[in-house]
Amino acid sequence: IEVARLDGSNRMVIINADLKLLRAIAIDPIDGWLFWTQWRADLPKIERSRPDGSEREVIVNTTITWPNGIALDDKWLYWTDGRDDTIQRANKDGTNVTLLIGKTLDGIQRTARHLFSITLLGDYLYWTDWHSSA
Predict the structure, then answer these.
(1) H/E segment holding residue 19
(2) Neighbour tally for 57: CB within 10 Å
(3) Do residues 111 and 99 make contact, with C-beta atoms less than 8 angstroms apart?
(4) What predicted TM-score, i.e. pTM, was given to this entire model?
């Protein structure tokens, strides 16, 4: 994971260990956290660190298989899962994971397929998926 000024100057690597198949990155400038997803079949996870790379930690590594997109608001971290066809959210420390859209608890109903990107505005979530080209 790299950082640079908006004009491209002062480019530097802040995290380069144990990174494979990164998909999404988001920053929380209020609380001072950087979040990213890893889309690995053997170890899918969502991690966070401080913007300088310090205090790195895994915050979600259960309930996910292909974490694609991530988005933040003032309280929650949201993500899409391309394999499980879900949108979930958790507190920014990874606790209180909640299924918002996708499979029911019995695993049958699917309301979206191969979810990819996600963003939000106000009280609304917006996402894309590969299946419906939406």
Answers:
(1) none
(2) 10
(3) no
(4) 0.89
